[in-house]
Every structure is written in structure tokens, then in C-alpha cells.
Automatic annotation (TrEMBL):
Keyword terms, alphabetized: ATP-binding, Nucleotide-binding
Domain of life: Eukaryota
Organism encoding this protein: Pleurotus ostreatus
Protein name: Protein kinase domain-containing protein
Entries under InterPro entries matching the protein: Kinase-like_dom_sf, Prot_kinase_dom
Tagged with keyword Nucleotide-binding: yes
Molecular function GO labels: ATP binding; protein serine/threonine kinase activity
Segments forming domain Protein kinase: 70-383
GO terms for biological process, alphabetical: intracellular signal transduction
Annotated Gene Ontology cellular component terms: cytoplasm
Amino acid sequence: MSDSHLLSQTANLSTDVPAFSRGTKLEGRLSTLELFWRDHYDWLLEKGYQLRSRYRPDWKPSWEGTGKLRFNYSDNVHPTHGSVLDAERSSDGELLMLKRISKSLHPFEVEIGQLFSAKPLADNPQNHCVPIYEALQTPDDDNQYILVMPLLRSFDHPRFDTLGEAVEFFRQIFQGLQFMHQHHVAHRDATKLNVMMDARPLYPERYHPFMPWRTLDLSRHASHYTRTQKPVKYYLTDFGLSRRYKPEDRPPLEDIIEGGDKSVPEFSTSDACDPFPSDVYTIGNLVKTCFIEGVELDSVGQGFEFMKPLVADMTQEDPSKRPTMDEVVTRFEQIRKGLSPWKLRSRVVKKRDSYVDGVFHGIRHWRRRLVFMIQNVPPLPTP
């Protein structure tokens, strides 16, 4: 069976549309947060990065005078957060993501991002820190930088097809956080929003950065392969709260700075803590809430019982009782080796799937599963 035929089978694998906020702007107007990008359009173009037509200084909405709904036009789509925007690299047409940061608010983000993006660390396969291609200081504000990064998307969209795909996700994010810790860097916000995926292998056509379930021109649904067919790499992103320490200064004691996960026990019981065990908690809690318990609307909750003992230790209330990331990776490897190929090829079931959805996805999954077994496609999709 050809890749194109399997692609047609998997096009409906992700029928869930992620939440997308259209903001509070008037039709045909830029929000105040978008004005920054319009004002720096020409400068970024000189640097080799072209923004969408929406941000040209002379932009006029393409739908004006057509009598058609503006939602069908790509220049109507805007980011949900004013600090990030997509761009096209002029040299090769590659879609990238730009992130605007204030160095006074996040003094170490550029330094830490560049640390892991430079050789020799950049070439290490254990490194899962998002690459920073370039850090541009804006010409009108010495405190302001624009980080140029690959275009990434949420790690769980499209949905995981097999347990093996999720196991490979666990391996990469555990390894990535271990790599940061081995280089004496605490992430301090390793939560769901800051764990992302380079989905380029999955999509034969480019998807829209802010409507990723659609093609770039919004003309149709963005068809995709499964991770088993086209393995992907996951990245830890957003080093705005991250800190780097000297080896002799460990374990550090830092004032509490809450990230996306407000449930870290030590945040409510003390004024300062060691951020490394807190990292262990947050990455363990990500696996717990998104895979084991399935407490979120778009989460799963069946088939991941094998992760419960490790995750329970990672999320203990007493930070001193949590394993280090070295210990987490070692224990996880033993867990992974104990999973049979049959288990790894099992379908990921979402709690909210209806009976009809379950039957529909189940039939398609079994068809793919048989083909992959015949073709000897590995159940662990390692990139």
C-alpha cells in the first residue's frame, strides 16, 4: 500500500479542531499587538524574513469588495498572542516562527536558547531544545529581540495514533529535560504549552501556522501522515523563566516563579525552592494529566497504566523524594523495553470518543496496523 493511500486513510485521524481565538479586532483592522509587526515589516524583510501580506504597511484586506466572507482569506488570520508571528525565509521559502521578547523581563532567554543552538550541543541527538536560528535586536529598542525559530505546533495535534507514538514522545521529552539538567539549566516551565513538535514530516503540504488544521491558503483540510509513518521530533520551548547555574552552585535555591503549571506543591508551601525537582514534577504532571488521567478535554486516559508508577514518583509532594531526570530516563528505558510490539501498536483511545468515533477510528487503525506489520514498519517511530 502506498504512502499516498495511507495518507488518505489518516486525513481524518485528527478531526478535533484546536481552540482558536479570533481576538477582539474590527474587520479589516490590525490589533494594537499586531502594529509592532507592521512597523517592522520592511526591516524584517531586509533581514531575510517576509511576513504575510497582512503586515505590509500598505495592506488592504483582500476580501474587500468581493462580497465574500473574510474568514476564507488567509490574510484575515492573526495570531492569538502578539509576541509570536510566522514568517517566510526569503532564501528558501521555509516557514518559520518569530518571537518578540524583552530582555529586561527575560534576561536569560537569548543566552540559554543560543547555548543549546550552538555547536557542539546543537549536534547532540539528546538535545531537544528548540533551535534559535538567529536573535535579532530591533533597531529602535536595544531591550527588544526577535528570536527566529522553526515553525512548531502542539505536540498532541494531530492526535497520537498508537501507544508507541506516545512512548516515543515520552522518551524524547524526558531525554530533552535530562539534557538541560546535565548542562545545569533548569527550564522552570516545562508544561504543555512549551512542549512542541516539528510536524513538517507529517504534512505533504504546508499548513497554516495559526489554523494548523487547514492548508496554508485555507482552501482545505490539511491531510497528514501518522507519526509511525513519518517520525517527528519534539522540542522544549520558551526559556523565559529558565536559569543556568554553575556546577558548584547546585543545588540552587530560587525564589518561586510560577509558570504554566500552578500545581507544583512547593510553590504553595515555601518562598524558594530548587527548580530542578520542580522541572521533574511539571514534566511528570504533563504525562499524568494529558495521558494517564485524561483530565483535559482533548486528553486520553486509557492504555498508559505502565507509566503510573514512574509518574507517581515524579509528582510526589516532597521534592526530595522525586527522582532526578537521570533516574527518570533510566527507569523509563526499562519500562519501554518491557512493552511488546503488540502493545506499542495499540490504538490510543480518547475518553471523549463516542462509540461511533471509536468504531470509525478502530477500523482505520487496524487497517494501518496490519499494513505496517506486513511492511515491518517499527512500532517506535524514532526520527
